[in-house]
C-alpha cells in the first residue's frame, strides 16, 4: 500500500501552520504535541499507522469552513475523522496533513416526529440517534456492529450498513439532508426534511464518498417506528452451500426478513464457546433469520421460512420463544468477531458483496483458497444482502503471515468481482481496497469518478490516497489549465 | 422561458448531418421529414413546442455510443427522449439539436427472482416491468399516474414517484444498476444486482439528472412481493387544514400507509361527477388512505388511522369492503386530472414538495393566492409525502390567462421553498421550473451543481437549456482551458 510522497514543505511549516490555526480555533482545539497526536494515528484498520501533522477539533460549521479555506489556500491536505472506527483505513492520517476531527459536533439538534426525522451533528453516535427518539417508539434503522461508538457523520462517509439493512436499507436509504463544507470553505445545504430535491442528487453522491468530496457538519436522517414484534429462528445445515441456497430461496419467495445472517462451523463454535448463545454444534452452517412486524405476520413468515429451510435439508430449527432468547441468538452473532480473536492471534476482516445466488459457489472457492494459503477463514456475514465478512486468521508475529493474509483477502475480493459483485458492502474502500479498484472499474469508469472528484476538490486536498489507486491531476483529465499560484475557482462568475 | 440561441451553423449543415447519421444507423432510424418530426415537437408539457432538427431511433448501446460520439465531435446538441410523458418539458426538442429517442429499447432483458430484480431496456414502460413479474407475485413499486405509457428510462431521468412512493420510495430507492453512455461515447456500467458499490455513487447522481449527464441504455430495478392484502379508507373533513393535520399525525404515530392522498372540494366534486367513485360531496377535504400487508395488520392500522382522524374532527369514514370498492376509491383519484379538464378549458399542473407539517399553512395561502389571481385552483396530491399537485385552471383563449396561471404557479413554488420545501417532487425541473432554481439554490449550490455537469458534459451538449437557469461555461468555472477545436478529453491518460 503506497501513499503519495509527503510534502516536506508543509512539514517544515508546521509551527507557522499551528499559529495560523490557533487564530481560527481556540488553543485547546489545535493538537500538535506528539503524545496527544498518537491517539489519532490509526482507525479501526489497525495494521496501518501514521502520526498526523496536526489535529484540529472545530465545533461550528463556520470554524470548519475557515479551517478548510485556510488549508485550501495553503495547499495543506485534510483527513476528516468521525469516531475513528473505519475498518478500511478511511481516517488514516497523513504525515503532511491535518486531521479534522468532528468529535465536538456531538449534539442532537432536533427531533421532528411529524416529518419523521432527526437533525444531528455528525459526531453523534449511530445509537445516539435511536436513544433520542426511542421514548416515542421510534428508532434509526441502519445498525453497524460498531453502533455504540461509530458516528453518524462517519456512517454517511462510508454509507454504513448493518444487520437490518436487508429490510431497511443502508445509510443512503435513510438519509434526508446534509450540510457540507467544501474544500474552498463554501457551505452547501443538500436535501432537507422534504421528499426528493431538484438538480443533481448531491445527497446520494456525498454518501459513501469517504471524505473525499467535503466535510459533513449536519445530518438529517429518517426515523422509523419500532416494529410491533420480532422473532428469530436458528436454522442449521449440513453444508454452507445448502444454507446459501436457502437464503436465495427465501428472497426469491419475496420474503424480506429484518435480518438474515449466516455463520460457518468455525464461527458457530467460536461464538458458542464465548457467549453460550445456544447454537447447535453439529452443523456446518447456521442461519439466523429475524422476522419483524405484527405478531401474526411474524408467525406466518416464520412458518414459511421454516418450510423453505426444510426443502433445503435444514437439520436444525429453533424459533425464539422470548425476547431474551432472541437477544441470546444475536449475542452470538455480535460476539463472533471477538470470539474469533480467541482462536487466532490476529485476523483480517474482509467485506465483499456478491449477487445472492452466487453464495454457494463463493463459499466453496473460499474453502479451496484457505487450503491453498494454509490460513484458516471464518465466515460470519449478512447473507440476505450477499455481504460477506470473511475473517482470515493469521499470526502477525510469524514472518510473511500478514502478507499471505492480505493476498488471500485480495483473492477473495477479486472473486467477488468475478461473480458480479463488488469490493465492499459497508466498510468502504479506504486505503485497504484502494489498489483493487482497477479490478472492479474500467479505465473509463475510474476516469469518470475522478472527474467528479475534480468538480469538488480539484487540488485533491481532501483525504488523498484513499479510495482511488492513483489520482490523475484534474488538469490532465479535463484539460484544465491552472496558472501557478492561482486558485482553481477564486472568483466564481455570477449568474 | 428563454432558450439558448440556436446554432445556425448546425442548422445549415442539416443535410450533411443526416447523411453522417445514416452511416451509423439504418435509414429508417433517422427521421428528418418535417411531418414526421412533428410527432416529437413536445412532451407532456404541451404549452411548449419546438420541431427538432433530426430524430434518431437507435436500438443498441453501441449505436447510442456512436451517435453521441458523432454529436460530441461535431458540437451537436442532443435531447434524450423516453416516452415523452414529461410534465416539465424535459424532452422539449431544440431547433438546432437531435432528439435521441429510446423507443426501440423495449425489451425486458432478464427477470431474476433470487436477486429480486429485473434488467430492462430503458424504453420498457413502467407497468411493463410489473407485467413481466406479476405471474410470480412480484411488482415494481413506483407508480406514476402515467405508468401505462411512461418509460423506465424516463423514470430514472426524472426520479419519478407515484401514489405508493410514501411507503416504497421513489425511483432512486428502487434502482440497482444502470448502463449509461456519456457524451463522448464512452459506456459506463454503474451498480448491478449486488448491494451498494465502491467509489462515488454515480447511480444516485444519474437518477433524476434529467438527461443532462448521460443516456441510459439499460436499467436494473428491484422488485417487491405484492402485499398479502390492501384496504383503503375514505376520510372526510370540514377543512383542508384538519385533513392536513390528520396526515401529519398519522405519520408522527409511525404509521406508513401504502398511499395517503388528499383531494379538496373542487377535486372531489369533479372526480365524483366523472367516475362515481362514491365520494362524500359535503366535505371540504378528502383523504384516501391505503394500508397494505397481512390482513390482521391492515385491520389494526385502519382502526388506528380512523381513531386519529376522529381526533382531528373527521366527519366521514368509509372503509373499502372489497377489492372492487378499493379500486373505485382510487379510480376517482386517478381520474381527477381529466375530471378537472371538464371544469376548465385548460389547467396547469404544478409539482412542489413541502415538509408534511406545513400542509395546513400552504393550503390556506394557496386559497388566498387563488382569490388574488382570480383563477381557480384544484388540489389533488400525495399528502403523505407532502408532494403537492395544484391544478391551476385557466383559459388559453383568454389573453393574459396563461401568463397569470404561470405567475400563480411560480408563487406557489416560491411558497414551497419558503416553508422549507422544494420546487419538484417527481415531475422534474425541465424547462418549466428552470428559472425558479435561483429561489431554491444559493449561487454556491448552483455553481457546485454546474461543476458536476462539467465533469460529465463539459461542452453542455446534453439537453442544454433544461434544469439550470443559465449554464456557466465549464472553462470559466474550473479555470479549464479548451484549445480551439480540441476535444475536452480526447486522450485519457492511463492509470
Automatic annotation (TrEMBL), chains A, B:
Keyword Membrane in record: no
Key words, A-Z: FAD, Flavoprotein, Oxidoreductase
Cofactor: FAD
Database matches in InterPro entries: FAD-bd_oxidored_4_C, FAD-bd_PCMH, FAD-bd_PCMH-like_sf, FAD-bd_PCMH_sub2, FAD-linked_Oxase-like_C, FAD-linked_OxidoTrans_Type4, Oxid_FAD_bind_N, Vanillyl_alc_oxidase_C-sub2
Superkingdom of source: Bacteria
Domain FAD-binding PCMH-type: 48-226
PANTHER family hit by this protein: GLYCOLATE OXIDASE SUBUNIT GLCD
UniProt-recorded name of the protein: FAD-linked oxidase C-terminal domain-containing protein
Amino acid at each position: 500500500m503506497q501513499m503519495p510522497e509527503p510534502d516536506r514543505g508543509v512539514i517544515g511549516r508546521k509551527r507557522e501552520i499551528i499559529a495560523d490555526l490557533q487564530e481560527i480555533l481556540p488553543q485547546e482545539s489545535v493538537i500538535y504535541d506528539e503524545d496527544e497526536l498518537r491517539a489519532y494515528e490509526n482507525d479501526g484498520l489497525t495494521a496501518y499507522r501514521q502520526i498526523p501533522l496536526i489535529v484540529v477539533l472545530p465545533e461550528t460549521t463556520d470554524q470548519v469552513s475557515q479551517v478548510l479555506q485556510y488549508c485550501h489556500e495553503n495547499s495543506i491536505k485534510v483527513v476528516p475523522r468521525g469516531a475513528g472506527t473505519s475498518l478500511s483505513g478511511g481516517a488514516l492520517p497523513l504525515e503532511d496533513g491535518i486531521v479534522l476531527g468532528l468529535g465536538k459536533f456531538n449534539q442532537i439538534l432536533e427531533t421532528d416526529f411529524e416529518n419523521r426525522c432527526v437533525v444531528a451533528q455528525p459526531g453523534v453516535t449511530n445509537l445516539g440517534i435511536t436513544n433520542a427518539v426511542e421514548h416515542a417508539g421510534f428508532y434509526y434503522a441502519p445498525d453497524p456492529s460498531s453502533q455504540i461508538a461509530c458516528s453518524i457523520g462517519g456512517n454517511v462517509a462510508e454509507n454504513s450498513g448493518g444487520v437490518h439493512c436487508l429490510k431497511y436499507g443502508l445509510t443512503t436509504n435513510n438519509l434526508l439532508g446534509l450540510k457540507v463544507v467544501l474544500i474552498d470553505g463554501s457551505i452547501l445545504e443538500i436535501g432537507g426534511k422534504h421528499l426528493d430535491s431538484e438538480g443533481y442528487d448531491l445527497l446520494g453522491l456525498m454518501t459513501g464518498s469517504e471524505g473525499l468530496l467535503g466535510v459533513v457538519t449536519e445530518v438529517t436522517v429518517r426515523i422509523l417506528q419500532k416494529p410491533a414484534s420480532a422473532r428469530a429462528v436458528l436454522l442449521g445445515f449440513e453444508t454452507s452451500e445448502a444454507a446459501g441456497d436457502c437464503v436465495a430461496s427465501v428472497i426469491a419467495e419475496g420474503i424480506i426478513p429484518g435480518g438474515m445472517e449466516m455463520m460457518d462451523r468455525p464461527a458457530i463454535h467460536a461464538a458458542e464457546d464465548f457467549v453460550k448463545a445456544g447454537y447447535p454444534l453439529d452443523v456446518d452452517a447456521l442461519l439466523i433469520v429475524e422476522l419483524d412486524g405484527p405478531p401474526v405476520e411474524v408467525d406466518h413468515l416464520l412458518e414459511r421460512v421454516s418450510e423453505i429451510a426444510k426443502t433445503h435439508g435444514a437439520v436444525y430449527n429453533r424459533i425464539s420463544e422470548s425476547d431474551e432468547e432472541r437477544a441470546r441468538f444475536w449475542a452470538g452473532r455480535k460476539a463472533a468477531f471477538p470470539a474469533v480473536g480467541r482462536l487466532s492471534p490476529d485476523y483480517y476482516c474482509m467485506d465483499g458483496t456478491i449477487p445472492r445466488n452466487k453464495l454457494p459457489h463463493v463459499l466453496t472457492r473460499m474453502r479451496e483458497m484457505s487450503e491453498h494459503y494454509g490460513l484458516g477463514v471464518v465466515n460470519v456475514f449478512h447473507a440476505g444482502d450477499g455481504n460477506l465478512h470473511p475473517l482470515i486468521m493469521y499470526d502477525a508475529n510469524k514472518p510473511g503471515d500478514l502478507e499471505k493474509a492480505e493476498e488471500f483477502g485480495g483473492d477473495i475480493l477479486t472473486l467477488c468481482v468475478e461473480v458480479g459483485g463488488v469490493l465492499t458492502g459497508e466498510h468502504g474502500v479506504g486505503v485497504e481496497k484502494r489498489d483493487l479498484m482497477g479490478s472492479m472499474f474500467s479505465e473509463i469508469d475510474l476516469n469518470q469518478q475522478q472527474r467528479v472528484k475534480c468538480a469538488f476538490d480539484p487540488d485533491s486536498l481532501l483525504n488523498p490516497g484513499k479510495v482511488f489507486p492513483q489520482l490523475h491531476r484534474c488538469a490532465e483529465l479535463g484539460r484544465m489549465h491552472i496558472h501557478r499560484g492561482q486558485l482553481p475557482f477564486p472568483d466564481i462568475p455570477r449568474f
